[in-house]
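Figure-free illustration: sequence to structure, shown twice.
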Amino acid sequence: MTADTHPARVALAGTRGAWRGEVGRWLGWRGLIHLALWLAVIGWILSVTVTTKHMPFGGLGFESLMNMLAVFPPLAGIVLTAAAVCGGYHDGTTAWVLSKPVPRPGYLLSVVSGIWLGLSVTAIVVPAAVAYVWLPRVEPYRFVTPEAPPLGRFVLALAILSMVLLFFVSLTAFLSVVIRRRSVAALLAALALLMLRVPVAYPGWYDALPARLIRTDLEPGEWSVLTAFIHGDSFDALTAVWGALGLIAVFALFTSWVFRRLEL
C-alpha cells in the first residue's frame, strides 16, 4: 500500500497527531497535579468563606465559587499559553514539530485547545462538581447553608466560564505570536483580565465583552451575572457571550495569519 499523499488528509492527520500529543499531556502527571492543586486551593477558599468568621454569610459559597472560576483558570491559562507558544518558539520545539507533516494552524490549534480542555476539566468542571455536592452539606459559620442551584443552570454557567477561559487563552496565543516574549504577552493578557474584571469606567460597549460576565465593580449586595443566573434570575448577558465568541474567532484568524508568516 502507498502512503496517503493528499495534502488535506496529510495535514489533518498531522493536526490530529499533534492534538493527541497535547491532550495526552493532561492525561498524565500534569493533569493529576493540576487537579490536586485546583481542588485544594478552591476547596480551602470555599471552606474559609463559608465556615469561618472571615465571611459570615454561608450563602456566599456559590458566589465565591463563581468568582474564583472567573479569575483563577483564566490566569493559569494565560501563563500556560504564553509559556507554550513563546517557549516552543525559542527552544526549537515549534520548529521541530513543524518539520513533521503538521500544518502551522493545526499545531497552534492543538496547543491552544489542549490547554483550554485541560484547564476546563481540572480547574473548572471537577472542582465545581465537588463544590456542588459538598457546599450544601457544610455547617456554615452563620445560619445560612448554601443551597445547590438547579443543575442545568449550574452546568450552563460552567460552560460560559469555560468560554471565558478560551477567550483569554486565545488572546494570549495572539499576543504570544506577535510579541514572542512570554513575560510581556502574559502581562498584557493579565492586564486585559484586570481591566475587564475591574473596569475604571464601564462604557456601554463593555456589554459586548466578557467584562459583563466577570466584572466585580458591583453595588453592595449585588450578585454577578452568573451567580444571579444559577440562583434563578434570567440571563441578561447574551451580548457578552456572542461578543466573546466573535472575539475568539477574530483572535484565531489573526493568530493563524501571523503564525503562517512567522520565521522559525
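We now fold a second protein in the same way, so the two outputs can be compared directly.
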Amino acid sequence: MIRAALLALLPLGATAQETGFEPDYALLFEIHADAILQATPGTRRLELPGPMVVEEITRGGVTRYRATDQSGHGAVLCQLDALLWAEFMAHSCPGLFQPAEAERLTGMTFQAAVFAGANTVPPLAPNAAIERLQASARGLASRARPACPDPDTPQAARLVAITGAGAQQRLAASLSLPRLPVSDPCE
C-alpha cells in the first residue's frame, strides 16, 4: 500500500533499469541453461527460487525479457525505486522528514540496494551496489524537480510513512528472502 502511494509520487522518479541493478538476463539464461523450459516457440522460461519466473521472448529476431516476482513480498526494484524517490524528496524538501526519519530512510534505501546488488546477475559487492545507488540518486537529482508538499498534507504523510515501523518490518521481511531483483509487480 505504501509502495503504491509512493509510486503515485514518482512522475520523474528513478526506474529499475536506471538504478543499474537489473539482471543481465542473457547471462542468467546461460547460468541456468539446464533449467530452461520451452514454454512456446520463441519463448523460453526459467522458474527460480523466490519464486521468480523469467521469460525470454524472441520475435522477429528481437529478444526481450520479462521477469515476475511471485514471492508475495513485492518486487525488490520497485521497492528500491520508491525508497530512492523518498530519499530524493527528503533531501529536496527540508522539514518534510524529521532527522530520525531521514536517517531510517537512508538505512532502508542502502539495505535494499545492497540486497539488489547481492542478488542480481552478475552479483555486485556491497560497495559497488552503494556506488550504483549513489549514481542513480545523482541522476535523479539532475533531472527531477520536486514539488515539495506542505508537511500537513496527505501527500507528505504518505512519503513519511515509508520510514514507519510497519514499512521497516515489511522491507525486512522482503529482504529476508533471497531472490532476483526485478520490477514486476510494482504495486
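Summary for the second example: Residues 149 and 173 are 30 Å apart (CA to CA).
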